Amino acid sequence: MLQGKRILLVIGGGIAAYKALDLIRRLRERGAAVTPVLTASGSQFVTPLAVSALAGSKVYRDLFDLTDEAEMGHIQLSRSADLIVVAPATADLMARMAAGRADDLASTLLLATDTPVLVAPAMNVRMWDHPATRRNIATLRGDGIAFVGPNDGSMACGEYGPGRMSEPLEIVAAVEAHFRAGPLAGKHILVTSGPTHEPIDPVRYIANRSSGAQGTAIARALIALGARITFVTGPAEVPPPEGADVVRVQTARDMLAAVQAALPADAAIFAAAVADWHVANAGASKLKKTKGGMALEFAENPDILAMVSHLPDRPALVVGFAAETDDVITNATAKRLRKGCDWIVANDVSPATGIMGGTENAVTIIRQDGAETWPRMAKDQVARRLAVAVAEALGNPSAPATVS
Ligand code: C5P
């Protein structure tokens, strides 16, 4: 899969740097040539000798190393790669990337190139959540930089939450997804998926029965056609697709922020079952049982699909879903116009259909020029067929017309 690919691996300074050693092995096993660049802080965590021994290559470390400049200038170093992988990417390294700094070899390489960049962040959960890091990540996404991870988990510092660097094989999957040829190669597609959780208080929430199965299958099918996917997901039952840039959210308002940060995109598929309302009077601490009941006040959530559909620089193709229980086609047709999206994938989620939370789906695709009903089939198959239709709509003539 990665035979002959040249990967420049920038290893930043974090405890996750030890995983970069395994990443080098895994990439080389698959045929890639890895040229390592170690930051000054990275070499506090892994030794240059270990990195270079595993990579079977010189390790580059110093911007002002005249020998390197004579052998291979730093500009040449980054331009000769097919992909630059930054793993681990620390908060500091990402801040410098977002600001366009060039104050060491790694940041200079990243600034002096238009080679695609894949970033695997790793940091403490509070650093990850800090508004400065959020801003930097939004900037980098806007610059077209792809992300893999981070995962939730316990950290070397003893805290728990998002910030753990993706495992080497997850990073390899994202690298492979980058190189996958196909009709959607080079396209960035945003997919929302899963339910949202709207808090009532810190321990209770309002949710819905969406498993995330259909959105995940769609993302997987798009990846298989070569697309780069940003997958914004609520707390779903099914694991997110491998090779996607996964952004985990809880509420509809979080989902909107994540979607805005993920744009621009060539297409956006809104498969999430977003709550229409959030609790306006959610408790800051656990609500106590009261005699005589209690009333929750609801406030409307932002309509993410409608908002994106009406952006002046919206994706070329915006696809919404309509889960209906009656008058499916009539309601979904009206919904397409109301939301302003290009297509609506309509389905009947009446309990008798077993579709919500099930493995099969029966959909009608409603476009401006008419509706097309597909037979009931596995959600994976609906996803594959939809992915092909997306490739056709984005104007790639090599996409096959139909998929069985
Ligand atoms: O209005 P309704 O919830 O039926 O619309 C469904 C479509 O709109 C889905 O594509 C869903 O992902 C999207 N949606 C959204 N933001 C909301 C509500 C729905 O993106 N707040």
Task: Describe the 3D structure.
By secondary structure, the chain is of the alpha/beta class. Helix content is 33%, strand content 23%. It has 14 helices and 21 strands. Strand 16 (317-324), helix 13 and strand 17 (343-348) form a beta-alpha-beta unit. It is globular. It binds cytidine-5'-monophosphate.
SSE topology:
Elements: E1 6-11, H1 17-29, E2 33-38, H2 48-55, H3 66-71, H4 74-79, E3 83-89, H5 91-99, H6 105-111, E4 117-121, H7 125-129, H8 131-142, E5 146-147, E6 151-154, E7 160-164, H9 168-179, E8 188-193, E9 198-199, E10 205-206, H10 213-224, E11 228-233, E12 245-248, H11 252-262, E13 267-270, E14 277-279, E15 298-300, H12 304-309, E16 317-324, H13 328-339, E17 343-348, E18 360-361, E19 363-367, E20 370-373, E21 377-378, H14 379-393
Parallel strand pairs: 1-2, 1-3, 3-4, 4-5, 8-11, 8-13, 11-12, 13-16, 16-17
Antiparallel strand pairs: 6-7, 9-10, 14-15, 17-19, 18-21, 19-20
Bound molecules: cytidine-5'-monophosphate.
Count of β-strands: 21
Largest pleated sheet: 8 strands, mixed
Q: Quick one: CATH class of the largest domain?
A: Alpha Beta
Structural class: alpha/beta
How many structural domains in the coordinates?
2
Number of discrete helical segments: 14
